[in-house]
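Model it.
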Amino acid sequence: MRLQFTGLGTALITPFTRSGALDEAAVTRLATRQVDAGVHFVVPCGTTGEAPTMTEAERTRVVELVAAAVDGRAMVLAGAGGYDTREVIRAVAQCEHAGAHGILSVAPYYNRPTQEGLFQHYKAIAESTALPIILYNVPGRTGCNIEPATVARLAGIPNIVGVKEASGSMTQIVDVCRRVPSDFLVLSGDDALGLPMMAIGGQGIISVVSNEVPSEMTQLVEAAERGDFAAARRWHQALVPLMQVNFVEANPIPVKAAMAAMGLCEEVYRLPMVPPSDAARQQVVAVLRELGLSAAVEARA
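Modeled.
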């Protein structure tokens, strides 16, 4: 077992029951499915996990369930972020108590801090815990970009060990890789850019598409890790349609629709997330059929 957050991590969806409650049994099944497929770490309570519409108690419970399900076979990188540093520190403590091995903390959103504010925010979080912290830069959602110079500065804090980069800018990602120490993790937060990022020095992917195809994504990432980029490219090209359709509407709407079509969870969202439009659903189902994932789809049609 790896004792670090390299390779493939799955940004796990959060299943709900038809009544809208947390589906604890399904959380356990989905987490177990991931580690059975060889995924190296599991990431509950992030964007894909609909964390913004979950209560504090629900988020803690999901981390507990995932930690119990993986049972030492994989690492648990729990999402804990927000725009109030004090609240994030409290959430981090709860994740640690629930069994997380590390924290993925999204940049503060809405209040748009300066680069100095970002540094002080993450410094305070890191000083509050012994857990390793991975920064999460996704400016398209947060309205706030963690600039490469700030990432490099934060890399000097001992338990800030990496960044999940989802800026969409390869120029920025190259700059980050150039500035940080060689043991500082640079992980892709974008499935479609994951292989290119690994080719220029990234150490892995925090993936949405591995919810649907954990074994295939594990093979892609492990091929890239051993330098077999021909095999990695074949997997990447095969999975690109699914990577793309997962974002035909806001994440996690399409991936949850796909998982439900495959019989892996109920298709239940919490407002303001709603089911996909008919057009988007047709695209999701078409890609599932194209990739040979249609047996469950046909059975449920």
